[in-house]
Design goal:
The chain is mainly α and about 140 residues long. About 70% of the residues lie in helices and about 0% in strands. It has 2 domains: about 70 residues, lambda repressor-like DNA-binding domains (434 Repressor (Amino-terminal Domain), Orthogonal Bundle); about 70 residues, no CATH class. Keywords: DNA-binding.
Amino acid sequence: MSTLGERIKHLRELKGLSQKDLSEKTQLTIVQLSRYETNHRKPDPDALSRLVTVLETSADYLIGLNSEPLKSSARELNAKFSFYMSHPVYGVFLKEFLNAPDQLKNETKHFFEFITHNYEGLELKQDQTQEDIRKNPIRWGTH
């Protein structure tokens, strides 16, 4: 994807948005978006700013100065989410939690709040937990 239009279209499609959806979110017309995507026009700075915000990217990516479509904070969040979802312990818990009924989610949330509020100084450190998992796989059920 070398052109601005191709990058806009690619991100729009990645987000599952139609041109109509994106036009509503950016307050641009469908005609404007179509012209941007087909490289018949370039967005002005205000339109570019709105596209960057809605598509959760950077202007540098859209204009071709950067090859990473996601903002660094979104990339970091994606990496953390992927780590937890693929983890043999956390992933199972998160998948079960996400599929649980709302009442169970609320009870789990209250239980977690109870634990963290009643144990002052309790810090859940990802690096320590990962190291513990490597050293004690049987304890964590990852053997």
